[in-house]
Design a protein that fits this description.
It contains eleven helices and no strands. The chain has about 180 residues and is an all-alpha fold. The longest helix is centred in the first third of the chain and has 21 residues.
């Protein structure tokens, strides 16, 4: 299994835009926090989060997203990891959302945008200022961070967390990498 540093080095080899890399670090941090709370392998879940969009800059759109990743990661990651990455684009890959890891990746990918947006509207633009209760209010406001899919975040109930628990865990995970994110 790839270490966190190896995963990031691989991402940096294929991804040029720093904001895309920060998104992958964010999703990795949320996945790690979820794994800890759910009794899963934190290192593996973080790796999935970090690698999930490794092909994003090489794709022509959602129709080939994750399919290119499958080629990039062939022989590098185990099948379970590749299946989770493919499943976060299940509408185009047909890979079922049938495990906690797959569902967690879908929800983590979506929540990252909501939490970053919540930090950026704070006076300091820092994650440290974001509180779980204010995050819940922002979740309920459809006008806030419109691109952050509430439906995908709500998948958290399918891996055993209430929305409140999920948002709190996601926020805590992201706060642990705040310095890397510049937030």
């Amino acid at each position: 299994m790839l270490t966190r540093d190896e995963s990031l080095a691989l991402v940096r080899k294929h991804v040029a835009k720093e904001n895309n890399i920060k998104h992958m670090i964010t999703v990795g941090a949320v996945m790690r926090e979820l794994a800890v709370g759910l009794g899963e392998d934190p290192a593996k879940w973080e790796m999935v989060g970090i690698l999930h969009d490794i092909d994003f800059e090489k794709c022509t759109g959602l129709t080939d997203h994750t399919k290119i990743a499958k080629d990039l990661l062939k022989g590098v990651v185990e099948d379970e990891v590749m299946d989770a990455i493919m499943a976060h684009n299940w509408e185009n890959t047909g890979v079922a959302l049938d495990t906690k890891m797959k569902k967690a990746l879908v929800a983590s990918d979506a929540v990252s945008g909501l939490i970053v947006a919540a930090a950026l509207v704070m006076p300091s633009k820092r994650l440290a200022e974001v509180k779980p209760d204010s995050l819940m209010k922002k979740f309920k406001s459809k006008e806030f961070a419109r691109g952050a899919s509430r439906e995908r975040m709500a998948i958290c109930s399918e891996f055993g967390l209430s929305l409140e628990e999920f948002l709190k865990a996601a926020l805590e995970g992201m706060k642990k990498v705040a310095d890397e994110l510049g937030l």
